[in-house]
Amino acid sequence: MSTEENPAAAPRSLAEALRGRDDVSLAALLRSRPDLITPVPTDLTQLATRAGTRASVVRALERLDRFTLQTAQALAIASDPATYAELLGLMAGDDGDPAVSAALPHALGTLRAQALVWGGDDRLRLVRTARELLAPSPQHPSPTGLGPTVREAGAGISPGRVQEILATAGLPSTHDSVSALNALAGLFDDPERMSALLDQAPSESVEVLERLVWGPPYGQVTADPAPRLRWLLDRGLLLPTAPGTVVLPREVALRLRAGRAHRTTEPVPPPVEAAAAHRPQMVDATAAGQAYTALATVEELLKDWHEGGPAVLRAGGLSVRDLKRTAVALDVPEPVAAFWVELAYAAGLLASDGEADERYAATPAYDEWREEPAGERWARLATAWLAATRTPGLVGERDAKDRTLSALGPGLDRSAAPEVRHRVLALLAGLPEGAAPDAGSLLARLRWERPPRADRTGGGAPSPYARRTPAPPAEGTRGVAARAGGSGAPGYPADGASGAGGEDDLRSRLARWTLAEAEMLGVTGRGALSSHGRALIGAPPAPRRADTRTEPRGPGDKLPVHHRQTPLPPALSPAEQATAAAAAARLLDPLLPEPLDHVLLQADLTAVAPGPLERPLADVLGVLADVESKGGATVYRFTPASVRRALDAGQSAADLHAFLAAHSRTPVPQPLAYLIDDVARRHGHLRVGAASSYVRCDDDAVLNEILADKRAAGLGLRRLAPTVLAARTDPAALLEGLRAMGFAPAAESAEGDVLIARADAYRTPPRTPPEPVPDGPPVPDDTLLAAAIRAVRAGDLASTAPRRPVAGAADTAPGELPRTTAAETLAGLQAAVLTNDTLWIGYVNAEGGASQRVIAPIRVEGGFVTAYDHTADEVRTYPLHRITGVAELAE
């Protein structure tokens, strides 16, 4: 049993409480609060000091669930130290609440495990920093809605006025103000005497108390208070805190609340309710269809950027115009296009090329990705999405400096995104098989697990009872009220809500975006978690649902869900995530459609692909024809420009005829054959090279036609020979100009050979995917934890072990290094070698860092001492000139 759980041990400080813990308990503390181990503390005293720093305590409070946080808030307004019975009374009230009584030991155990509370059940102490953060004050009202105690509120009242209050309340006078305030507090704490006092109160005075009882406890009065207020002021039920301001003392409020610190306690997390249920097979089929669409969309996006995509803005990212063009090309709204662009970037398939004229393009990893099986390609995208901290839902909003956030640009990282995504999917995994969640209950559960900042410290939002009373006097409270609220986006894409919302608003929006993005990516189908989505997060098999209906009965009808839901899966390590992704890919592969090796050619110069095509067929057809429509079947249209594009890529007319005949289940229509032959007959008839550029043609009549055309005026053409024209423009512009005039020129090299243009020639240099922005220090692994605990234990032994100075050593104050002369240090070490004694030494390393160590010297020679270092648990060698002094350990 740990020290703080054993009242007999009676630790006097947090360091002593930690000293009484076993290694398993210390490891749990360091795992839950990894900031305490960065860097590794030298001893348990330093660990306790670090655990009480404001930054560390705030971080720990942010990760408490609502009931555990309410427990800490109750301890902040309880006596210091408090008993378990007092804490239970504050949480469950005078009448008691069985659910609170059952849940309180676990919540208190969590606070103890995280070193926020220490001491036995008879002396519970909240860490001082946590008390300062959670205790009520005029500047930072507590979420409990309570005010200061009688002693705190009455500290500024004159002694004469205090005695007048005592007399009016029916109490005997005392000799000083301190005892008078204690007597008044005793009156308010006594249920019988307090009831008798309130029975005498006018009804108007009782109404005032009812308005203040649940907070805020402050009110404003005039210089001449009304009779109902005067009655309360004369008996100390309201105490003045400043001119024109009064407060309801904490003892009075608690008595009026029947002992409860909170108006509503939530010992049990709200269940996630199912809004609809579907057959699991339908969910998996729908999710598989979305997964296939996701793969096709990412591939279409990067294929569109084969020759170099949009330019990179000077500040980084994609311009609004380029995002619109991308959305039109993908036939999706702009926020959805931003999601696909960011997903490809997170998966390492897209990056900037790093050139002077920087542009976005596919990376070499894209070519490897295209060759992988479909299930593995999807798993790679889904894994990147789960771990990414970049948040595409923020695209188009403004940052703190009023700059627009752009896709692929800076400022989109939100460290909470991976955690929220995993929690949302984990909660979906806890629902019965095929059940889609009710979004409201899902958000309520997330808010219980990670309460908003206002519920943590009371300083981030107004009290929930602010409308019940006059405006509170503290200016800070009014300022917070003006900032309260925020527009959470109801779905994906974002609804244009300002990015100025706080962290809590962002977490709700992240949850909504997760639901929408999971549906687009195929992790969920019809809102329910699919089997491959369940495998992706390492969730156990889904529970069977008791209700077999496939839809709710009517609007607003929710399907029942058992209160005891399936345990939620924990976050996965990188190795576990790779294994889970492989399992998800194996489950998804059989659900994806098999690629086809044929199309259906039609007489209107179109081809219909009734499903996904094999990659070689899709690549050639993508060059030979333009995509006209997508969906369950893809329609391609053949045009002179598309046929010329295939000829430019090195195909001949015979090759195209053979390709279509081999891959069409219908005969090649005559109009398509004529189109190919007609374009091929004219293709390459003109040749363009570099003079600045030139045009040559064996038929001088064609060159005469070009010169006579007014559209050629901008090309700067002139005749060099009967079959050659020179131009002032570059070859690319000349090719484009002649094609716009209806000709089909071909580019040629300096040797006169036809140049073949391939659309997929451009790639960025090798790029690594963007690293997620960590949400604080990483959780240490078991090896690091074991080494850190061993070092902390040894350092604590060195700092706390009783010692006696060697002869001639100066007295050493606690915490200081031992100081002895060089001769005394050498003599002490040599004697320890002969007697096998253990010594306490001070040591200064080469960087000037001082430390104290417990060593067992083995030998002393050549200016060095070789010893077993208990602090490091290994044999080390130390230069004698860096040892400040030695001291023997006491028996």
TrEMBL record:
<feature type="region of interest" description="Disordered">
    <location>
        <begin position="531"/>
        <end position="573"/>
    </location>
</feature>
<keyword id="KW-0347">Helicase</keyword>
<keyword id="KW-0547">Nucleotide-binding</keyword>
<feature type="compositionally biased region" description="Low complexity">
    <location>
        <begin position="474"/>
        <end position="497"/>
    </location>
</feature>
<dbReference type="Pfam" id="PF13280">
    <property type="entry name" value="WYL"/>
</dbReference>
<protein>
    <submittedName>
        <fullName>Helicase-associated domain-containing protein</fullName>
    </submittedName>
</protein>
<feature type="compositionally biased region" description="Basic and acidic residues">
    <location>
        <begin position="544"/>
        <end position="560"/>
    </location>
</feature>
<dbReference type="InterPro" id="IPR026881">
    <property type="entry name" value="WYL_dom"/>
</dbReference>
<feature type="domain" description="WYL">
    <location>
        <begin position="824"/>
        <end position="886"/>
    </location>
</feature>
<keyword id="KW-0378">Hydrolase</keyword>
<feature type="region of interest" description="Disordered">
    <location>
        <begin position="448"/>
        <end position="504"/>
    </location>
</feature>
<feature type="domain" description="Helicase XPB/Ssl2 N-terminal">
    <location>
        <begin position="599"/>
        <end position="721"/>
    </location>
</feature>
<dbReference type="GO" id="GO:0004386">
    <property type="term" value="F:helicase activity"/>
</dbReference>
<keyword id="KW-0067">ATP-binding</keyword>
<dbReference type="Pfam" id="PF13625">
    <property type="entry name" value="Helicase_C_3"/>
</dbReference>
<dbReference type="InterPro" id="IPR032830">
    <property type="entry name" value="XPB/Ssl2_N"/>
</dbReference>
